[in-house]
Each structure stands twice: as C-alpha cells, then as structure tokens.
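Meet my pick.
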Amino acid sequence: LGDGSTLDLDAAWNESDREEPGALQPDEMAAARTQAEGPIDFANTERRTVGATWSRDEVGGGRLRVAPFARRERLEQVRTIFFDASRHRTDGVSLGGEASWQRDLSIGGRPARFDLGYQFGRDELETSWDNREFGVPAPTNTSGTGERLTHSAFVGLRADVARGVVARIGLRWDFLRVSL
C-alpha cells in the first residue's frame, strides 16, 4: 500500500448439490432411481467466506495485523429412514476477526518471537426439521436458533533453543457465551 502496509483479500464460495437415493449403485440409479428406498433424498450445501488481512511493519518495533472475516453456511437435505422422509434446513452466519502484534527477538543469540493478540467471534445458527412419520397425516416441525459469542486474548513466546528444537510458552484467556 506504499506506507509499509499490506492488504490481502480472500473470498471463497463452495456449493454442492448431491442426490442421494439410498443404497443404489451408479448403474442401478441410471436405470431406475425409483427402486431406491429414498428416491427423493438429497443434500444441498453452500458456504461463502470473505476476509481481509491488513498488516503493517514497524509498529512499536513489531508487526501489527488486523484480520476480519464473515462466513455464511446453508444446508438443505431430505433423508428417508424406514420410509419416513425428514427435511432438515440450517442457516449459519459467523462474523469475527483477530488483531495481533508480533515482534522478532533474539534470546541467547537464537531467534525468538513474541506474540500478543485478541480474537472475537459471533455465530448464529438457525435450524429446522420437518418429520413426516409413516402413518401420521401431518408433519411435525422442530426449529431453533442458537447464538455464540467468543472473546479471546493471548500472549506467547516462541524460541529456537537448538537446531530443530523450538520451545513455546503462552497464556490464553477465553470467554464464551452460548444462547439456545
């Protein structure tokens, strides 16, 4: 960026649509998929992630790094177990990031690194099940939402003590709150 800073952007999108018609071999499925126990079974998933990492050298004698991210995951599936088809949907969103500072040191003439940082995250998951039980005319529906909030702080030291031997010591504090 011209001022000793770097900015990296990252994005990913994965999607899969899978037909899962029970225990049929590929040739059996091509011939007549209706012979499966669950000819309508499927699983569709989607995951999208975006993130950025900004870093800058020579901040307090070390390197400062800030990295936020966002992720969304969705799943929809139908599973048939003993002639009962169940539909399951989930939708999850995660937001979070990390801020850290690293400084390279020398201990006894050997390289070492001091790390200090903070991480946070907020996650939400919504899910629902529609169960169609054999012989029951109306489906039963179960749904819920869960939330998780996390905060973490850490400090650590990594030192090369001999050729091929690394010593690490660290302290980490975590806070977690879950709501269902």
